[in-house]
Amino acid sequence: MTLVNRYVVQDVIGVGGMGSVYRARDLHFPNVVKLVAVKEMINRAPDPLVRKTIIQNFEREANILATLNHASIPRIYDYFSEQNRSYLVLEFINGKDLEAIISETAGFLSEELVLSWAIELCDVLSFLHDHKPDPIIFRDMKPSNVMVNLSQHVILVDFGIAKPFMAGQKGTMIGTEGYSPPEQYRGEATPLADIYALGATIHHALTKRDPRLEPPFSFAERPMRKINPSISAELEAVVNTALQYNPADRFPSADAMKEALISAGRKTGILARLGGATAAIQGTSTIKPLWTFKCEDELRGAPIFYNGAIYIGSYDHNLYSLNVADGKLNWKYATDGGIVTRPAAFEGDIYLGSEDQRLHVVSARTGKVVWTYFTDGRVRSSPRIAEGHVFFGSDDQHLHAVNIMGQRASWSFETTAPVRSTPFVANDMVFVGCESGDFYSVDFRGEMKWHFKAKMAVTSSPWVADGVVYFGSLDSSLYALDVRAGFVIWRFRMGKGSIVSPCLTDGMLFTGSADGHIYAVDAHSAKELWRFKTDHQVSSSPVIYKDSLYCGSADGNLYCLEYKTGRLRWKFTTKGPITGAPLVYDDIVYIGSSDHILYALLA
Amino acid sequence: MKSFFGRLVKKKTQPLVKQSDVNTVPLSDQQIQDVVTQEPRIEPSQLLTGSSQSVGKQRDHNEDCLLTFTMTVGGDKHNYPLGLFIVADGMGGHQYGEVASSTAVRTIAGYMLKRFHPYITNSAETLDEPLQDLMRTAINEAHRAVTQAASGSGTTVTVALIVGQQMTIGHVGDSRAYALRSGGRIDALTRDHSLVKRLEELGQISSEEAAAHPQRNVLYRALGQGDVLEPDIFTSPFPQPGYLFLCSDGLWSVVSDDDICHIINEAPSLQTACQNLVAAANQAGGPDNISAILVQLIS
After folding, report:
1. Chain A residues in contact with B232 (beta carbon < 8 A)
2. Is the pTM of this model over 0.80?
3. Which of A50, A331, A467, B182 has CB atoms 3.0–4.6 Å from A367's, for a disulfide?
4. Same domain, residue pair A56 and A87
5. Nearest chain A CA: its distance from B241 CA (Å)
6. Which CATH superfamily is domain B46-183+221-298 in?
7. Is B17 in the A-facing interface, judged by CB distances under 8 Å?
8. What ipTM did this prediction achieve?
9. Which of A60, A75, A91 is the last residue of a domain?
10. Which of B235, B236, B249, B297 to mutate to test the interface with A (most CBs of A within 10 A)?
11. What phi and psi, each to the nearest 5 degrees, are found at residue A200?
12. What is the arithmetic mean of pLDDT over B215-225?
């Protein structure tokens, strides 16, 4: 096919909604092979007057384009119309479009490459936006409109010139553009819309997540570094600014974005971290404990508050009663084994399990023993008091139900392995896991209602809410089971096993894992809401107080995070791993560490 | 002391006082136990359902598809009610819309019932697969089947799988699931995967603007579209007392939430409620196909 006796069509290089794009040879240069791209646009408007207007607009835009001289804009050589078709003859670019490059690249594209293209794209956008007399808005920035030539430079193709040829579509449609900002759907096209679309293009290029397959305007829900952790925080911050919903929150101009990209590029490699996540951090040194209490060995369990005193067991065998106001010792009570459990309080007495195989019941006032109860194994499960009974597990492979009035066992339920999980009592049922991975639902008569088997130990203590029981396992999963029937509703996978006891607030479930993360998961959908990285295993169970989450890590820190977002508020460093859960009471957080110290901090 | 309290709340305390005046021997634990367990439980728990459908007044063929399935077992230890309810709204014109919706519904129902077969035939079996994984696989199977059977078309799908007291919802598109609770409260459980809903959620346009937006028919997620499909999947307790209500946009776009509540609460049966809801959508112009499923859990 030869067009206007001059352009010999060699190949079809693209097919669009309004016609095809051809590679053609220009016969005006008979002695050399000069290749051009010919863009064909079919005029489908039925009304002759409309058709004429479309052609006039096309020719006017072609004239504007022909005057643009920029390395990243293809040269326009010619245009013409024949019957119901219009043609634009432009520079042929030997290269590939960015969409093809993204999908053909096996891993992620390198940050350096994408950064260099992004800077060039800012440059050309800035050139277009500064056009006189009227700024030119590109309107359609997306990977398929960015060509990368053989020398790795970018060229912007497919200017809005073809738009009038698109037939109006009707009826229910599927698919959105994915790259356009919200205001473009109100009919606004400004330079700031191009900036958003460039942000979306960079996001797509670095994450391989096609925004056309995601909910519109949902970039904030999938930050780049979550998908591709190798990206620098600096570049992510630039892209996040470009992608703000509100145009006023974006870069004011393509030039400003270019500056930000260049400075991000300069900083890359430097450890200095940017971004909102770290901006609000209070220095560790500024946090002074209200008081501390030092004992003889590690504090592995959690404290409780009862009647003006803090109670905590230590691996030095002692249960301590401390004055809540100043941390002064009220009394201590010695058991014959290490204590790794959390005490429970009931009607003036403190209940506590010890590795001396006993449950100890001690008067809260005097610290004198009231009664004890022997099991045949170490007690590493914390007692739970409900319905006149104390429920707890033991390494003797039993769940014990001890009647408080009678100080005798009502029953004990045999499991297949040591029980270190703390029972949860709800719906007239007791829920508990054990070290073989078996998880049990037992009624108040000690009869099993149902049973579930995880692949590895369930040390985590369950949490029950709204007919669902939640617990973690060393098999790296967080489980949600139906409380009545034991059906698995969902399973959430973490990087490593978990012995953390989840807690639930506001439909959000919080837990931690040996992979070092604190997780927030939607309790209904098992969708990860956020994760926070600590520098070591998380075996401390999180606690929610007001709008904060408190959780320790084996890296020695107690973290205070905003529970809705996972943003760090502050952290407090102790001299040893933290494995026990914190207690927050009356705006004060109490945390024990394996550095032998119990700290009282302002929440 | 008694007279002091009596003066404070005169009427209410009188019968109480009378009762406590009667001399009785305290009940033993066994006696209390007997009294508590004497009230027989009404078995078995079960799901009631009604459904209705109409082509509407402005379309010449029906591209909606719906399915209801319930199972009740009485006299068995594992007598959890089981139910599956699906509404799908096909699109894409060229008569492929109806192929898309019915393919989706049959694929999902077929897959689910196959997986529940061991549970149905052997009461000792429980599913080892998480219900949400089951839902995800079923919808993805349907996505593949629709892509094959009716290429270029698409369909919405809203699935409710009920096992015991929990309902697991799988959802793609703009059909909806609602929970109706006592006191006339109605909550949309699902979120439309439509462009204007998204703009509305982000506060970019008002709900009035959304209702009139030229792109209000644009979905960003549908079965049969794209390579990867990510359905919304979540589990929540079945509303008790209350109802689960599923419908296509042919109903919710013309019948208000208040009217839905009112019609359901006034109707003598679930079936009549569904018929009246569809009739109301037709009265409001019937611009699209209409499907409705109403479910109640008796336990």
Report:
1. 525
2. no
3. A331
4. yes
5. 14
6. PPM-type phosphatase domain (3.60.40.10)
7. no
8. 0.78
9. A91
10. B235
11. -65, -40
12. 83
3-class DSSP string for chain B: CHHHHHHHCHHHHHHHHHHHHCCCCCCCHHHHHHHHHHCCCCCCCEEEEEEEEECCCCCCCCCEEEEEEEECCCCCCCCCCEEEEEEEEEECCCCHHHHHHHHHHHHHHHHHHHHHHHHHHCCCCCCCCCHHHHHHHHHHHHHHHHHHHCCCCEEEEEEEEEECCEEEEEEECCCEEEEEECCCEEEECCCCCEHHHHHHHCCCCCHHHHHHCCCCCEECCCECCCCCCCCEEEEEECCCCEEEEEECHHHHCCCCHHHHHHHHHHCCCHHHHHHHHHHHHHHCCCCCCEEEEEEEEEC
Q: Which residues of B touch A484 (CB under 8 A)?
A: 80, 164-165
Q: Is A444 on the interface with B (CB under 8 A)?
A: no
Mind listing the pLDDT tens digit for each residue in A172-190? 455 557 888 888 877 777 8
In chain A, the number of structural domains is: 2
| Cβ contact, residue pair B163, A482, below 8 Å | yes
Distances (CA, A) of B33 to A407, B37, B82, B136, B245: 21, 6, 32, 45, 40
Angle separating helix axes B131-149 and B96-121, nearest 10 degrees: 150
| pLDDT tens per residue across span A493-534 | 999 999 999 999 999 999 999 999 999 999 999 999 889 999
Dihedral angle sign, alpha carbons of residues A12, A16, A20, A24: negative
- Residues of B in Cβ contact (< 8 Å) with A174: 91-92, 154, 218-220, 222, 225
CB contact A491 to B (< 8 Å): yes
Residue at A582 is within a domain: no
8 Å CB contact of A182 and B204? yes
Which of A214, A245, A489 has its CB closest to that of B168? A489
A490 — contact with chain B (CB < 8 Å)? yes
How far B77 CA lies from chain A's nearest CA (Å)? 10
Task: Please report the number of interchain residue pairs, chain A to chain B, with beta-carbon separation below 8 angstroms.
Answer: 116
Q: Do A47 and A109 share a domain, yes or no?
A: no
